Amino acid sequence: MGSAVSSEREAILETLRQFCEAEIRPHVLEWDERQHFPREAFRKLGELGFLGTIFPEEYGGAGLSTRDYAAIVEEIARVDGSVALALAAHTSLGSSHIFRFGTEAQRRAYMPRLTSGEWLAAWGLTEAEAGSDSGGTKTTAVREGDRWVLNGSKNFITNASVAGVAVLMAVTDRAAGRHGISSFIVELDNPGIRVGKKENKLGMRASDTCTLVMEDCRIPLSHLLGREGDGFVNSMKILDGGRISIAALAVGIARGAYEAALAYARERRQFGRPICEFEAIQFYLAEMATDIDAARLLTERAAAAKDAGEAVPRLSAQAKLFASEMAVRACDRALQIHGGYGFIKDFPVEKYYRDVKLCTIGEGTSEIQKLVIAKSLLSD
Ligand SMILES: Cc1cc2nc3c(=O)[nH]c(=O)nc-3n(C[C@H](O)[C@H](O)[C@H](O)COP(=O)(O)OP(=O)(O)OC[C@H]3O[C@@H](n4cnc5c(N)ncnc54)[C@H](O)[C@@H]3O)c2cc1C
Predict the structure, then answer these.
(1) pLDDT tens column, 167-222
(2) What percent of the chain is predicted at pLDDT more than 90?
(3) Which ligand 1 atom sits nearest the alpha carbon of residue 130?
(4) E strands in the chain
């Protein structure tokens, strides 16, 4: 899988920018207020090839690199974090898990529908009692004749009510602890699975976050994904890739907020001059621009290592930790530069400020990223 050369990448990003300006930006606040998931925009993103970026062309993907994909997530997040989050969960979590650990038959059955956007993917590891400690999964999968029977529920699942298929983790051998967790492909029209509570969120409100409840959910034996007992370990590998997309998401939100603040600082006048002439404001802008560049470099480093086939737990955790914490800081500064106007919905910055917080929580909190980084440092 090659990285697009820079002129190709720029052309792809230009197409995406035009799409975001025409089809996303005008609706951002309305979708946020209504908590509306823009399924139609995703259909168009699929037609343009943005829902299968990192998968080979033979499965309907675009065959781009992780670096290209990170640039794509950043570009979308610059306009709307919710759309970028849904795309990242679809690509890096659900679709990647099927592509990376699926059999050829599973790939052929699902990847073309996912890369085209006909179906969206969800991915469920988290449960009420198993958040950071995902090894504490309670959902069970029991083999009965020619079926697996799943019982339990998954919390906070992105795309849950809009996806066609989900990858879900369940315990197949309680005695084996983390090595007794397996992954399954569950089609979401199965009568044994239903969408439960839809979360009413601080930010990322146009992304869909719901509980998935399984009650005697029967699926074919062939829907085991990867080897029995490998579900936890494989999930951690999937999160290593996913965290690169959350880092890119954070960079994009920070950039959107920074660009809004820079424009505002040039226009807003107090004490007879534009506020960008005050050194305090200049320092904020300088720090934000430097932080954003540093986070993007860490994200690109992790993405390049992944493209080179290296294991990336430390690099992706470092990128996610730094990018998400800096993005929270950057959005706070961007709002401060707007003064009272940052606090009202006539300006985009209050939404960046709400959306960005998810980046320090989803796919492992900042504290968990530090544990991953420290584990790697201490085992070297
Ligand atoms: C909008 C949204 C979308 C999401 N999408 C998905 C999804 O698609 N699929 C999915 O599976 N999950 C998803 N999640 C879940 C997310 O990954 C979890 O919320 C996250 O991993 C934290 O788990 P928790 O919320 O249970 O917090 P907890 O684990 O209860 O953590 C609470 C606090 O304790 C800290 N903490 C916990 N353990 C330790 C420790 N050992 N050392 C130090 N500090 C610790 C945490 O860092 C945190 O500050 C989503 C969450 C949100 C909010």
Answers:
(1) 999 999 999 999 999 999 999 999 999 999 999 999 999 999 999 999 999 999 99
(2) 98
(3) 26
(4) 121-124, 140-144, 147-158, 165-171, 181-187, 193-198, 209-220, 224-225, 269-270, 273-274
Cα–Cα distance, 29 to 354 (Å, whole number): 12
Q: What is the pLDDT of residue 5?
A: 73
Ligand 1 pocket mutation, candidates 365, 366, 367, criterion most atoms within 8 A of CB: 365
Identify whether 350 is a catalytic site residue: no
Q: Which residue's CA is minimally distant from atom 23 of ligand 1?
A: 131
Query: Which amino acid makes up residue 327?
Result: A
- CA–centroid distance, 320 to ligand 1, in Å, is 14
Closest C-alpha to 369, from 252, 257, 242 = 242
> Would you state the pLDDT for residue 1?
45
The one-letter code for the residue type at 201 is K
Of 121, 124, 99, 108, nearest to 46 by C-alpha is 121
Averaged over 346-364, what is the pLDDT?
Answer: 98
Ligand 1: residues with CB < 6 A are 89, 123-126, 131-132, 156-158, 201, 204, 209, 358, 361-365, 367-368, 371
Which residues, 6+ apart, have CB-to-CB distance to 6 below 8 Å? none
